[in-house]
Write a structure and sequence with these properties.
heterodimer, A: 268 residues, alpha+beta, 7 helices, elongated, B: 345 residues, S-adenosylmethionine decarboxylase, 3 domains, six-stranded antiparallel beta sheet, three-stranded mixed beta sheet, 9 strands, globular, centromere (chain B), Chl4/mis15/CENP-N (chain B), chromosome (chain B), CENP-NAC/CAD_complex (chain B)
């Protein structure tokens, strides 16, 4: 008896649930029809505008109101963006894990060309800590984080961005040497691209060559801090032309310096 | 050629498959082309070896030359033996400006300082990897070339990979590495594998990591099984979310080929039945080991197929995020240090 009452109860529950679902379907269908009608009307309006057709009176009113709304929302969006950029110093920051962590993208560029993008994900729960990244292991990330991350977030992003951009720039310069000046032979280079040794030929037939060593003491810069010129021909290395070349290598990116040297005939 | 040289040559030749013998010997560049032509590569290895040894003796090749061949073999086959990863900490100011020549000279000098008889050979590859072969002796005996240690280090990074290091030689290697790379301390990185490339790719993040972006990027699942279009429509969003989660935890595309992950448990037993294990204050020690031909790929598939619940537990995602495959799990005691958060049974 009790069992039968129990199952009857269950049956009633099922029926009620079924009724609810049916009602939900009807409401959703009605909503769908309404949305279809609205989008159709908007689409008509847009088509008319695109084709430059004249609008009817009520459509013009709708249009003015719509435009006002659109402008207002765009303004609010831009203002928000402005505040955000001001806070994060112009870096591309994305929230993830429901606000528990933040992901920053660093874009690198050299001489107007975009190079790699690096990402850094930071955990914000207790203190700001780096959870993962794809920054090359030769960049001293731990040291930079230790020095700047807790004290000044923006400064950390700034200095990391400088390091990454300079690394990308130095790497690109070596690539350009290989591409633009095939006669220069690169003897030694490293992952951080802060130590570069290459050999330039002076004349076509002879064995005369000059060995240039470039050391980049400042990792946030694309230019070397020390340039050493060596050659078997001591007088050549000491000549005023090569003194000028030494200065050129200190003051301009390697590939441009080498191109200039080739133009004036210092190297082939 | 002395005993050791012959033994090493025999070992290396045995390991190289017949098809690759000729290229390996040519790359070695210690035999003339006539000598190379005169060898019959289809012979059984023991016969081939005898002929090879006589050619080597014609050229008066020494132990040093043979070790070069052995090193080339290991460089071409970085999946032999079990490699262990170490990490250097606390770089000094001039660590980033150490170049290859300085590193090599310092390493050799420091090893020779502490171990009277040691033989060190280094080679720098195109990709920046520095391979080091160390044959250890001691104060009285000459270096044993039959049990060399191989070390691979990428300059200006903090990672070192080691093969075949005996514990008695550890302190010497540690000290020499610290002094030549200008760091203060070195620790085991809790990552070991047969594949050096997998470990390197994992630690130096040379695989495609996936970060959350605000672009509407639909990660297309490769090789998806065929299914009914309505089911697909309903599940598309779910599947995409799972796929994104899986790729964020483990990476996209081809993943480093790790084979094992080991979790040592040092936790208390927590069951919901009434047996006696529950009341014990002692730790329930156990070891959980995952093994697969491609562990990270398997985990990623588990998550994207819905077999493992999301969000991905940090126990698994730590493999890629922290770059290790050996963990010790302890109970989280307030105030005490623990390796990873305790997992409720």
């Amino acid at each position: 008896m009790l069992e039968k009452a129990g199952t009857a109860g269950q049956e009633k529950q099922k029926q009620d649930h079924l009724k609810e679902l049916h009602a939900a379907i009807l409401t959703l269908r009605a909503k769908r029809e309404r949305l279809f009608a609205e989008t159709a009307a908007l689409k008509d309006l847009k088509d008319k505008l695109d084709q430059g057709l004249p609008l009817e009176e009520e459509e013009t009113d709708d249009f003015m109101q719509l435009e006002q709304f659109l402008l207002k929302s765009r303004l609010m969006q831009l203002k928000d963006l402005q505040t955000v950029y001001h806070l994060i110093g112009g870096y591309n920051l994305i929230e993830s894990k429901q606000g528990k962590s933040v992901c920053v993208s660093f874009r690198t560029a050299f001489e107007g060309m975009y190079l790699e993008t690096y990402n850094l994900e930071m955990d914000l729960r207790r203190t700001v800590q780096i959870s993962r990244h794809n920054i090359p292991p030769c960049v001293p990330l731990e040291r930079l984080a230790k020095e700047h991350l807790q004290a000044d977030f923006k400064a950390f992003l700034e200095i990391l961005s400088l390091h990454l951009n300079a690394l990308a720039g130095r790497k690109q310069q070596v690539l350009l040497i290989k591409e633009l000046i095939g006669t220069v032979e690169i003897i030694e280079r490293n992952q951080l691209c802060n130590f570069l040794v290459f050999m330039c030929k002076i004349q076509e037939e002879t064995e005369a060559a000059v060995l240039c060593t470039l050391e980049y003491g400042d990792l946030t810069q694309c230019l070397p801090t020390r340039v050493t010129i060596e050659s078997e021909n001591k007088t050549l290395a000491e000549s005023p032309q090569w003194k000028k070349n030494q200065v050129l290598l200190m003051e301009s990116p390697v590939h441009s310096a080498l191109l200039t040297m080739r133009k004036v005939g210092s190297i082939v | 050629m002395d005993e050791q040289a012959r033994a090493i040559l025999q070992r290396v030749i045995r390991k190289i498959p017949n098809k690759k013998l000729q290229t390996a010997l040519r790359a070695w560049d210690h035999l003339s082309s006539e000598q190379l032509e005169s060898l019959d590569y289809a012979q059984p290895k023991w016969l081939f070896l005898e002929n090879l040894i006589s050619r080597c003796e014609e050229n008066r090749l020494s132990l040093k030359d043979v070790t070069k061949l052995e090193m080339a073999y290991y460089i071409d086959n970085p999946s032999k033996g079990t490699w262990h990863a170490y990490q250097l900490f606390q770089a000094e100011g001039d660590a980033v400006s150490v170049n290859f020549t300085q590193f090599r000279e310092q390493l050799k000098a420091h090893l020779k300082d502490v171990v009277r008889h040691v033989s060190v050979r280094t080679k720098k590859l195109e990709d920046g990897a520095v391979w080091i072969r160390i044959a250890w002796g001691d104060n009285f005996s000459k270096p044993n070339h039959l049990k060399p240690t191989y070390v691979v280090h990428y300059l200006q990074t903090s990672y070192v990979f080691v093969l075949n290091l005996m514990s008695k030689h550890k302190p010497f290697l540690y000290q020499a590495l610290l002094l030549s790379t200008r760091h203060v301390s070195i620790k085991e990185a809790q990552l070991s594998s047969r594949s050096l490339t997998a470990m390197r790719d994992l630690l130096m993040r040379q695989y495609q990591q996936v970060f959350p972006t605000n672009q509407e990027r639909t990660l297309k699942e490769r090789n998806a099984p065929p299914s009914h279009p309505s089911i697909e429509k309903e599940h598309a969003e779910c599947a995409e979310r799972r796929h994104q989660m899986a790729c964020e935890a483990f990476g996209d595309g081809v993943l480093p080929k790790l084979e094992t992950a080991v979790y040592k448990l040092e936790t208390k037993y927590r069951g919901n039945s009434n047996n006696t294990l529950n009341d014990k204050d002692e730790l329930f020690r156990g070891v959980v080991m995952f093994s697969s031909s491609n562990l990270l790929e398997s985990f990623r598939h588990c998550v994207s197929a819905g077999m493992a619940e999301g969000p991905v537990t940090p126990l698994l995602s730590s493999i890629t995020q922290k770059g290790r495959n050996s963990f010790v799990i302890t109970d989280k005691v307030p105030g005490a240090a623990s390796q990873t958060p305790a997992h409720k049974a």
